[in-house]
Amino acid sequence: MNFWEYLGNRHQQLLTDAYQHASVVFQCMVVATVIGVLIAVVTYSGEWSGNLATTTTATILTVPALALIGLLIPIVGLGVPPTVIALTLYGLLPVVRNAIVGLRGVDPSLVDAATGIGMSRPARLLRIELPLAWPPILTGIRVSTQMLMGIAAIAAYASGPGLGNVIFRGLASLGSANALNQVLAGTLGIIVLALLFDAAYVLIGRLTIPRGIRA
């Protein structure tokens, strides 16, 4: 059968895999964003601590995804756990780096003014610094999401959820009738999901970033 016939016959399974793929990436990005911003808040004020945070998360990113997932399997087993841990770790670097850059870029005079009117440190962070650092943080989230879309496909090696299963089945049966259709369907599905997520981030940016800051 040709590619369009394959999509017509397997669309339910493909939609299920696409939903699982999008779900695991979204959930891991939420966790990575929370952890990454917390790391940045703790470390951005010191040159040494900020560099250590960036270097550590960058080191994690140098570990091949297949190797990391393989190392996690004996510890947490197959399926969702190694997928979530690996994706969360890989999603940290852009968030941490951009959050540190954004927090360091806040005008000190604004922080001093907030201190002068009696704002506490947590209040300054939540009401002044993090809102002003939000544009670069959002950019980091967008970059992480695009990376995780591709890395999540490798999680099929550990029986993880998502479109990687379709791609792996096709690669395992190269030469059969639908092998190329499976690889193509999984790959295009990931591309479409990545574009949809990026469009959602653009919309979030327009809704949450004041026009003056965007300019």
UniProtKB/TrEMBL annotation:
<keyword id="KW-0813">Transport</keyword>
<feature type="transmembrane region" description="Helical">
    <location>
        <begin position="65"/>
        <end position="93"/>
    </location>
</feature>
<protein>
    <submittedName>
        <fullName>ABC transporter permease</fullName>
    </submittedName>
</protein>
<keyword id="KW-0812">Transmembrane</keyword>
<dbReference type="Pfam" id="PF00528">
    <property type="entry name" value="BPD_transp_1"/>
</dbReference>
<feature type="transmembrane region" description="Helical">
    <location>
        <begin position="148"/>
        <end position="171"/>
    </location>
</feature>
<feature type="domain" description="ABC transmembrane type-1">
    <location>
        <begin position="18"/>
        <end position="201"/>
    </location>
</feature>
<feature type="transmembrane region" description="Helical">
    <location>
        <begin position="183"/>
        <end position="204"/>
    </location>
</feature>
<keyword id="KW-1133">Transmembrane helix</keyword>
<feature type="transmembrane region" description="Helical">
    <location>
        <begin position="21"/>
        <end position="45"/>
    </location>
</feature>
<dbReference type="InterPro" id="IPR000515">
    <property type="entry name" value="MetI-like"/>
</dbReference>
<dbReference type="InterPro" id="IPR051204">
    <property type="entry name" value="ABC_transp_perm/SBD"/>
</dbReference>
<dbReference type="InterPro" id="IPR035906">
    <property type="entry name" value="MetI-like_sf"/>
</dbReference>
<comment type="similarity">
    <text>Belongs to the binding-protein-dependent transport system permease family.</text>
</comment>
<keyword id="KW-0472">Membrane</keyword>
